[in-house]
Write a structure and sequence with these properties.
With 430 residues, the protein is mostly helical. It contains 22 helices and no strands.
Length: 430
C-alpha cells in the first residue's frame, strides 16, 4: 500500500511526534533533525529539482513565516507603548472586575476577529491583552491562552478570511464570501458560545481575581507609556490588517504585507533591525515551523495523504451523508495531529470528482471538510499555525503549556465542536 519512501516518512514523522509529546527534548531541535533525516533517506530526490533542499523548501509556506515574523515585530513594538494593557484594563473596568465576564467577552471577541483577519494575526494582537490582565489581577494565564487557541480556530471557520484552509476551499470550490458565512456562520456561533461557557465552568475558581484592585482607580488610570509610539504602532497595525482583509484586490500575500508593515514601523520609530529581530522575533518557533512544513511535506510528496484520502472515499462510495460525516471526523483527527492544508488540498479534487461521477451535490462535503479541518486544528498544540504562535509567545513570557496539559483540555472541547457540527450537517445540510 505504501512505498518504502512513504514508510520512512511515516516512521520519521511519528518518531518526531512522540519526542515532541514526551517534552524531554527541545521540540525545535527534534523537528529540524527529523527533517534532515528525510534528506539522508533521499525522500525529496526528484529529477525536476537540482537538490533535495530545493524540493523540500517548496513545502515551506513562506507566507506563514513572513506573516508571523512581521506581526511579531509590529505587535511587540506597539505593545511597548502600553496600549494593549490600557485596552485590557478598560475592558475589565467595563465588566466591573468580573473575571468570568471578562473571560467570556474576550473569547467571543477573539472568535469574532479571527473570522475577518488571519488567526495568526489575531492571536498576536490578543495574547498581550490576555497577559496584561493576568499579570494585573494575579491570574493564571494558561486558561486564557489555551482557550484563545480554541476560539481562534473556531472563529476562523466562519469566513474565507480567517483560516488558510477556508481560503483554499473557497477558491477551489468557487464559493463566495456570503455563501461561506451563511452556511458556516450559524454553527460557528453556536460552537464558540458553547466552548466559551464550558471553559468558564471547567476553570472555575482559576478565573477569580487574586489581586485587590479598586474599580475607581482602574477607570481613572492611564496605562499608555508612549503616545507617539502608540499612534505609530496602531496606525501601521490598522493598515496591515486592512491590507490583509483586501489582499486579493491588492494582489498581495500575507507575508509581504506583514513584513512591509514591520519594516516601515522600524523606519518611523527608529528601532534598529538587529534589536527587533533579536528581541521581538521568537526564532525557535520560526525554525520549528520550517521543520514541521518539511516533515509534513514528506507525507504529501510520498503519497501518504493521498492514499489515506482515497481510502476514505473507497470506504463510503456515493453515500453522501455517510461520506460527509466521515469527512468531518477524519478531517478533524488529521488536522489535530498534522497540518490541515495538505489534507484539505488533497481532498478538494476528490470531492469534485465525486460530484462528476455520482452527480450528487458536493457542497455538504466541502462544509464538512472546512468544519473538520479548521475546528480540528485546535485539538493539539501543533494542529494549526496559530496554536504554535500562542505557545511560542507563552514560552517567551516564561509560561509553560505542556502538550498533555493542552491535549487534556482542548481535545474534548474540539470533539464537542465536531459533534455540534455533525448535528448541524445532518439537520440542515444533508
Amino acid at each position: 500500500m505504501f512505498s518504502f519512501a512513504a514508510l520512512v516518512a511515516i516512521v520519521v514523522f511519528l518518531f518526531v511526534y512522540m519526542l515532541i509529546v514526551s517534552e524531554k527534548v527541545n521540540k525545535t531541535v527534534v523537528v529540524m533533525l527529523g527533517s534532515l533525516l528525510l534528506f539522508l533517506f533521499k525522500i525529496y530526490v526528484d529529477q525536476n529539482y537540482d537538490t533535495q533542499f530545493s524540493h523540500a523548501i517548496d513545502f515551506v509556506d513562506f507566507n506563514v513565516i513572513g506573516l508571523i515574523i512581521g506581526m511579531m515585530i509590529i505587535v511587540q513594538v506597539t505593545n511597548k507603548s502600553g496600549v494593549f494593557t490600557h485596552v485590557a484594563m478598560r475592558l475589565v473596568a467595563y465588566a466591573k472586575c468580573d473575571m468570568k465576564k471578562v473571560f467570556f467577552l474576550l473569547m467571543l471577541f477573539t472568535a469574532l476577529i479571527t473570522a475577518f483577519i488571519s488567526n495568526v494575526t489575531a492571536v498576536m494582537v490578543m495574547t498581550p491583552i490576555f497577559l496584561a490582565i493576568c499579570l494585573r489581577f494575579k491570574l493564571n494565564p494558561v486558561p486564557f491562552l489555551m482557550t484563545e487557541i480554541l476560539m481562534s480556530n473556531i472563529g476562523g471557520t466562519a469566513t474565507p478570511l480567517g483560516d488558510m484552509t477556508n481560503i483554499i476551499i473557497a477558491s477551489k470550490a468557487g464559493f463566495s464570501f456570503a455563501k461561506i458565512v451563511s452556511n458556516l456562520g450559524p454553527v460557528v456561533i453556536v460552537v464558540a458560545i458553547v466552548v466559551a461557557l464550558l471553559a468558564i465552568l471547567y476553570f472555575g475558581d482559576e478565573l477569580k481575581s487574586k489581586a485587590d484592585v479598586c474599580l475607581e482607580d482602574l477607570q481613572g488610570e492611564s496605562f499608555i507609556q508612549d503616545r507617539s509610539l502608540m499612534v505609530k504602532g496602531l496606525s501601521v497595525l490598522f493598515v496591515v490588517v486592512l491590507a490583509l482583509i483586501f489582499k486579493n484586490q491588492l494582489s498581495l500575500d500575507n507575508g509581504p504585507i506583514a513584513m512591509a508593515g514591520a519594516m516601515f514601523l522600524l523606519l518611523i520609530t527608529g528601532i534598529k533591525p538587529e534589536e527587533a529581530f533579536k528581541d521581538y522575533v521568537n526564532w525557535s518557533i520560526i525554525f520549528f515551523f520550517v521543520g514541521l512544513f518539511i516533515l509534513i511535506g514528506a507525507l504529501e510528496v510520498t503519497g501518504v495523504v493521498d492514499v489515506l484520502a482515497h481510502a476514505i472515499v473507497d470506504a463510503t462510495g456515493d453515500n453522501l451523508g455517510l461520506l460527509a460525516i466521515i469527512m468531518l471526523l477524519v478531517s478533524a483527527i488529521f488536522s489535530a495531529f498534522i497540518d490541515n492544508i495538505p489534507f484539505a488540498t488533497t481532498m478538494i479534487p476528490i470531492i469534485q470528482n465525486i460530484g462528476v461521477l455520482t452527480e450528487v451535490g458536493t457542497d455538504p462535503l466541502f462544509w464538512a471538510l472546512a468544519l473538520g479541518a479548521c475546528i480540528g486544528g485546535s485539538g493539539t498544540i501543533i494542529g494549526a499555525s496559530c496554536n504554535l504562535v500562542v505557545i511560542g509567545l507563552a514560552e517567551h513570557n516564561g509560561i509553560k503549556i505542556t502538550f498533555f496539559q493542552y491535549l487534556k483540555y482542548a481535545f474534548p472541547m474540539m470533539l464537542l465542536g465536531i459533534l455540534i457540527s455533525a448535528i448541524y450537517l445532518y439537520l440542515f445540510m444533508l
